[in-house]
Records
---
Amino acid sequence: MSDSEDQLPDEISYDEQRYPARPRRLRPRDQLKRSAVKRFTADPRTANGTNPAYVEWLVRQSMLKDADVLGRQLSGQPSMWRNPYARPDARRAIETTNVWFTAYPISLITRPGESFLQSLGDEALWEAFEAIGITGIHTGPVKRAGGISGWQETPSVDGHFDRISTQIDPEFGDENAFRRLADVADAHGGSVIDDIVPGHTGKGADFRLAEMAYKDYPGIYHMVEIPPEDWSLLPDVPEGHDSVNLDRDRERELSERGYIIGELQRVIFYTPGVKETNWSATSPVIGPDGVERRWVYLHYFKEGQPSINWLDPTFSGMKLVIGDALHSLGDLGTSALRLDANGFLGVEKSAEGLPAWSEGHPLSQAANHIIAGMVRKVGGFTFQELNLTMEDIRDTAAVGADLSYDFVTRPGYHHALATGDTEFLRLALTTSLATGVEPAQLVHGMQNHDELTYELVHWATTHHEDVFPFRHGEITGGELARLVRAELTEVLTVRADYNLVFTQNGIACTTASLIAATQGFERLGDITPDAVSGIRAAHLLLTKYNAWQPGVFALSGWDLTGSLTLPASEVAGLIASGDTRWIERGAHDLLDVAPEATRSLAGVPRAQALYGPLPDQLGDPDSFASRLGGLLRIREESDIAIASQIDIPQVAHPSMLVMVHRLDGGDAAKRDAAIQITVLNFSAEAIDGTVRSESLVPRSPVTDAESGENVGRVDDLQSFPLHLGPYEGRFLVLGEPEVEEFHPITRAMPIITGV
């Protein structure tokens, strides 16, 4: 190629060693831009596509490049054919590990000079976990996240779920510390679970290369190049930003002109003036060919989380995600992966005037099948955090991830505690069973890094006009969702100033602060040491609800320590954009390794912890951790994690919940397996009720597994009475039916005593 500005040919070809980009026909004005750019790139510090050193720097740290290398290492190896992979198997996953500790890297207080991963690999921590009954640890996102601007990295915009690399973030440790964690977990009979994010990345090297139209990188994303003659359709990008969200009018205009598919079914994290649509426009970006381009790209979540395109002809997005998964499983030694944002992997234009089709799209199911199948093929399993309708969860789980997060009943049990009425929870449970979503397929989680979700997607979207029985009448799904949200908001945020609404998604709170609000504490300062026993009792009730049913049980450090929310003033900068979840992510010290620390290594303020560190708790038989260990031993001994839920009967008292299970190991053919009944009181008052179910066998003795007490016998109406104390939960097991001896004389006539 000639360097003469006057001899530039119409069609440009490139030296692939120095300027590896897609050929592009240059317009006359582009030729002028190219001439100016060539003179500008004499400065090696230039951070744009005209500097080969900058382009190569980006390539070296890109996820797509790493995926190419990782894939070649496993390709053609016999290990790729040793495991079944076509069908999800929830119970096989559960048997690997079924009680999980959900970590959050930036909130864990560690010893001075100790990284997050080193802290998780501490023998003392795993000894405590083993004493409690925790068998798995979900590390949370520990790989580099955020973005790149010029030569500098920018911070994460979503708690490290905007991944930009397969490398461990130095803030959390390194690969050696991760591998040691896996080894220590294995020595204690445990497993390690990592994250992949198949729905989006951050604005890292891959996105910057895509903006430059470099090789196959634009194929990673849902991004469309807008020609200069239509740049007037795009908003100006404010100073200091690299993109700007489209408003509804511009979204509609670009859709009508055929550039984008336009409006989607919902706008997650909707915030007026910040995120009004799922589309953003970039500022002008210069590529290695000297062409300046502007793009419009899709982001289901925040602007800094561009969505991955799973059906681009290059299949670049698919390769990137699979490479990230193989790195965690093959190089780091994990046993399983959480799939984040994996319900939005397909998107398609709908009929005129209708939102684009995304949620429940067949491509999402197909892409999830590929990801989960690949993980199973190398011996692992997956779980998905997928807040969709029950039908969509059922259909995706039929071919995709082995387990799904329990968004089905999680809002329901919070609502039951807030109102003292289990009716909505019972409706969610019975609807789930009728839809074909078994509790054994779900990860029943307490608090994690996210908000208390109350989107109630099943009721508010596809079933919004369907009618359901509720409170002695009928109500549509849409009305039901609005009612439940309003009642949760009233109890948890209006009456308590330490929990906050999070956009349209839910409420930012910890489990302990949620309970405190339901018990009438208006301010954090009102929660004195005298309040701890009542909060702990309700916390153990919620634990029993989640642990004493089939499926995985998961809880966090905030649960183990009884952490409250942070005062909003302590995280004012973090919540300024509307992300109120930072109040619930307070720092906590599990082992009391840094009692004087006021913040985590990442700078998160320490939260008030009602229960204290694990060593102190395990020395106190009445503590939360000690009593948790007791109820988890009952869970393990009964094998309820792989049982079958067979009935959610009506109850005699509104605060009462009854779940009936058959301890059959998931084999429905074992009709003679023992029957187990979980009975819970969601109120602060003692209640007397009756347990009645067609699954109960008359004359069967009923035993409390926790106390060993014989609490009665099933009568001929398939019922028995039961007294429950405040927030009490009981794990009851039916014995063999008693056979009454037949005495002809006493049956024929009454026994007469006396003269």
---
Amino acid sequence: MDLNDFVRNALESGRTALTEAESKTILGRYGVPVVVETVAATAADAVAAAGDLGYPVVLKGHGDGLLHKTEGGLVHLNLNDEQSVLSAAEQILQTAANTKILVQPQIRGSREFVAGLFRDPHFGPAILFGLGGILTEALSDVVFRLAPLTRRDAADMIDAIRSRSLLGAFRGEAAVDRERLADTLMGLSAIAADFPEIAEIDINPLIATATGAVHAVDALITLTEPHPRATDAHPVAPPAIHALFYPRSVAFIGASAHMGKWGHMLVCNTISGGYQGDVYSVNPKGGLIAGKPAYRSVVDIPGEIDLAVVTVPAAGIMDLIPQLKAKGIKNVVLITSGFGETGADGKALERQLAQEARDAGILILGPNTMGICNPHIHFFCTGTSVRPLAGSTAVVAQSGNMGTQLLAFAEAQGIGIRAFSGSGNEAMITIEDYMEGFEVDELTRTVMLYIESVKQGRRFFESARRVSQKKPIVLLKGGQTRAGNRAASSHTGAMASDTRLFNAVCQQAGIVKVDQPMELLDLSAAFSSLPLPQGNRIAIMTLGGGWGVVTADLCNQFGLEVPDLSGALIAEIDKVLPPYWSRSNPIDLVGENDPSIPLTVMEALLQWKGCDAVINLGILGRRIFLKRLADSVEQADASYTREFLDDAVRVFSDFESNYIEQIVRLMEKYGKPVFGVSLLTDEKDATVYRVKGHHLKGVFYETPERAVKAAARMVEYQRFRSRHAG
């Protein structure tokens, strides 16, 4: 029978699942190693089939609607003779009406896995792999990837389970046949594409025998009527995204002369930020706003307007669309709230607004946004007076408050921003549109996202996977709670929560996912300033032994290796450090104050082929201690003049500036990153230090934890890039 007939006949007869034999027939055709089995109509037929297969055997009830056979007493294991088979067969036939008997050989193996397929309403078909049998739900050791899978994806899934030690040689049993496991996952992926009517597949257990052979001994396929995936997506092309951030003239509709109102803050922040384009205010009362005459209507403004920034109440937005169209305004930043975030009525109003704007040829950013900025043209159109440096990190935040807070952190830490958008409700421009715009933007080197949801899950994944192969995406996800339980008839569907699947999507797409807002900035600083490490081997240089031990422990915790020093490297460092130095990694500089020593050791480490990156602790920040010492000396010992003390502090300040410059030079020379940790910081310190004439920058964190996390995330991203090279 044609495989499609199984599915078609089942649906036409009103069934929601295939029988186990039908399920295994389909799976077997797609390379899944299903167990050999026979369907018997009578107890006598079951005995004959058992004799042909050889003992021991397993008997199961077989028929329509038998989804959970074990709980119904319809599974009998370890049957070793004709009498036990006959007895079990008769019991099955008496327990369930219109039932046949499935006869299988008893497959023995102490290692059981699970594999499956389900369809997520947001992201589409997804594949599952993990620890199976009775431990599937108890231990929840499973991983997910979206279909279609590559062979590399399948291999990554197999390696990603926590219980992966079971896959190797284990307690006298041979290593599991990984190729057959990969065949199973690839088969499920192919089925997802070929059979849209298949809602879920559950293969549990997938038993590995003592020889490492793999057998699918139980399988369930559930069905659904295929429905076209509804979408109201209207992708926004990258040039349109670009135009939003490069307006030559801006009209503030709803501008106000009252300090503290949005219509006043936005005008003032834009003008004071140094924007060189034309700025117009629109208020039906006219008058003066920020020292300039306000126009009563947008159509009264002379000349062309590239961008309208709108703060009028939600009730008045629809009436504004014809005016914007008449004036030829193509782009709008809609600050106004009162739309989709307010409930069903607001969502309906938002959909109407998007449609009318689309019909009028108008692109709306928002509504309910905190604004946008582009430091490269000094355009700071946000509700807070935040002006980060121009740089290469593009930022999109679905929370405006979170976004402007990130901008404030970036400003304080010296992290350069390519552009920022508070995406708001994303009525027209979605996170996927921004990513595709940043993908082709030459000034963007790093993409930083704060998101709470995605509107187009599959497009989000595909866009992110493309972008990640060119430039890193650093993402913080808000609202990481389970949105609800899936109504699933199999383990596979029930095991997938929204958070777990989203995390899997990020991993598969190469997104660097972080857990805290500050990590966004730390990673943005690292990716935009340092070369990528080519491996996970870390050399540690420190002014204090304890600090080095803590950092080495952190490296181990985050999957970074701290390799032993080579004999040649030890001999090289012997030339500059006293005989009692540790001769091990971490390298303790034993408090030496000779300013040439840190740079000498640093270059030796970067030259060393045994490491991929260096973490250096405590070199920067000593000037602060010296300043405090100078203040104490001034009060206690009059023999030292203030001029002498200030000169001493200045020497250390000059050393630190030179140290940063030399670190940047060495990174560019050797192509390895250096992660700094400051001994102490004050208001003069930042995270990123620019050096004139160099494209790389110095990066110094306040704690070893932040430096190690940044290094580990960069290593993780580099592995993704390496796996997908070409």
---
Amino acid sequence: MNGSILFDPMLPWWALWTACVLAVLFVALALWRGLRGWWLRGLSLAVMLLALAGPSILREDRAPLSDIVIALVDDSASQRLGHRADQTAGALARLQAQVDAMPDTELRVIRVADAPDNGGTQAMTALAQALAEEPRDRIAGAVLISDGQVHDMGAAPPLPAPLHLLQTGHATDWDRRLIVRNAPAFAIVGEEARLTLRVEDQGRVPEGQGQTARLTLALGAEAPATVDVPVGQDMELPVRLSHGGMNVLQISTPGAEGEITDRNNAQIVQINGVRDRLRVLLVSGEPHAGERVWRNLLKSDPSVDLVHFTILRPPQKQDATPVDELSLIAFPTRELFMEKINDFDLIIFDRYRLQGILPSLYLENVRDYVRKGGTVLVAAGPEFAGVESLARSPLGEIMPVKPSGRVLDQGFRPGLTDLGQRHPVTEGLENPEHWGRWFREIDMKQTGGEALMKGIDGRPLLVLDRVGEGRIAVLGSDHLWLWGRGYEGGGPQLELTRRLAHWMLKEPELEEEALTATSAGQEVTIQRRTLGDPPPAVVVTAPDGTTTDLAMQEQAPGRFAVTWPAPELGLYRMQQGELTEVFAVGPAAPREFEETIATPRLLTPVMAPVGGGAVRLEDHPDFTLREVGEGRVAAGRGWLGITPRGAFVAQDVTVAPLLPGWIWLVVAAAFALGAWLREGRPIRRAA
């Protein structure tokens, strides 16, 4: 039972306070006039005013409620490092035993897993939800069993009781991590871009680790490079992209002996390569209907810098036109083919014939330019079959075809070879049965490369080849322009030439042999493009070192794919035959592994105001739980405190007047009678 006094006045409170003021004035007047019973008058008025206030006794029949202790158990990925999982299980078992030994105390266990979308450990959000589900006046304390790496401290709720940390981990833990402080999302192909990196050691670093670390860098399929970098200092890394599209830069440092994890020793930086300007040199051997198509096609793209020369007057032409009346521009052959040839991304020879304008030395430069990484497209006409053919020049040494000397002037419908139906340059083009006809083909014998299109009687029409580090393509007809004019329905001229140019510029999405992976959340789609036989299973290596063999299913000719749910975030490696690639599910180093050293630093600003503290389980595995008064320090060496709340539920409530009304009246009358008797008795004076 519990009792208290409450008031239920018979008059409004303003009237009661007015009466109090009048009573005080009345008593003061009696005192000023010297009445001997003034104090009895005051008591009589006070009793009457108290009676008007209606005092009552409130009695409650209370049933006590148990106190609640909230235990937040961190089950995130960083808690699986070292012996932290065992420490967590032991601490939870001891906490449960300590709470069970306390009378009227319950334990609520809340487990905190990795938050989705790389949110890390959301312990404060879980604590706020737990507090919202329980009556706050029953919360005696909260205990977080964790390494202290909490990633939502901004969501910390106001606490009605102490918050403590049972800290896992060891004092000797240390970790080396790789940090990418700044990386561009886009970079111009061929120009230098800079990344800001840092290799950092945390925790108790053992002696002898040194002040440098070995850093390995690999851009796409290029051979990796290694450099020694200082530890603990920001450094700039220059990167030069070799092709447009997405470029994947892998950066890693080897795991050091004794570090708690190597999951944060690698990073993947994806940089989208864009070309500042695509520099194209178009050399037309003579004016013809298809020349304008090539020019319009290239000039329509604002990202293309086109240098176009048409040979209108070959050197051997002799007529009576005075030289000072010629308005032709001299062909700057030396400047283009000797000094600036490496400035061009693509060189197109459109119906070019050997006329003495480009000597063999210049064409040898073009041949060497291709072998060193350049690209050449030969759009052949009737001249390709004659004695003035480029195939008879030094450039012919790297061509994948040889002309037979025949020009086939008849209508035919271009088609795709079996290889062309799978090759990324021609795969998926609109139905060849609906393409318009061409009316000229140069009879060529394929000596190398890959024939993607065929003409009359299956003769090779479009042949691609790799030469050294560069690429070359030969189109055995000058009637591509008919598609652009829409003759007999036309054909995919724009898409074909676009893909052809991108393949020659080594864009990754048009490589014949490619192994790629894309992720949506933790679902990964691995794709393989090949021109050969069906590939074997792809071997995927997870961040923890486990491997999984995945069989791929054919989705289209030359395309295979498999969808796989990745078990965790991090950096994965996949290998299929000679192809090896990496991909990241989420970041390469998830938020859980950005900082792995156990510390109470993040939680201290929340624990200190409510008297909480941290206990390292390594030092105090046998910690104790105590009851402390509200507002007192609630943590010490090897012990944690909770605050008993004394919560209850009222089962019955009774309200009764403090005294019956007639007693108030009798008491007030007695004081008034006493004042009258005292004031009516005469005062005796001494003789």
